[in-house]
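PROTEIN DESIGN WORKSHEET
SECTION A - STRUCTURE
LENGTH: 134
TOKENS:
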């Protein structure tokens, strides 16, 4: 069974285009300088519509997670993390952590992470995070 994938909308297309190109793209308000995620056409802080899309660093820290020991059929059979990461630019993002054991001993809060992209189809690459190289 293939993994359920997001459906890009006009408001999110730039994000998914960036993921497909290997770039994590965020939006920033030109009026108040707030960076935000998820994508939307106005600033969640000041409601300005003067926003821009920019390439984020891809750096993050692990903010919170759970380990799913009973995954859906489209997510495989092994336990996997469902995580919230704090991006270096400020926003938080829900994702999965890969590249390390899916155990509390390996998934340390505040651990440095970096984005990687997993192609799921010709249109969708998912942003996942892995432990940052030191």
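SECTION B - SEQUENCE
RESIDUE ASSIGNMENT:
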């Amino acid at each position: 069974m293939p993994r359920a994938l997001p459906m890009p909308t006009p408001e999110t297309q730039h994000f998914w285009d960036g993921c497909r190109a290997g770039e994590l793209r965020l939006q920033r308000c030109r009026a108040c300088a707030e960076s935000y995620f998820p994508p939307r056409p106005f600033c969640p802080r000041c409601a300005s519509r003067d926003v821009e899309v920019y390439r984020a660093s891809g750096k993050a820290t692990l903010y919170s997670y759970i380990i799913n020991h009973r995954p859906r059929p489209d997510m495989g059979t092994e336990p996997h993390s469902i995580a919230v990461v704090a991006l270096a630019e400020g926003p938080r993002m829900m994702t999965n952590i890969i590249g390390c054991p899916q155990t509390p001993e390996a998934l340390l809060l505040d651990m440095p992470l970096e984005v990687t992209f997993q192609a799921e189809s010709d249109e969708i690459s998912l942003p996942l995070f892995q432990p940052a190289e030191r």
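SECTION C - NOTES
The helical segments are 13-20.
The first strand starts at residue 25 and ends at 29.
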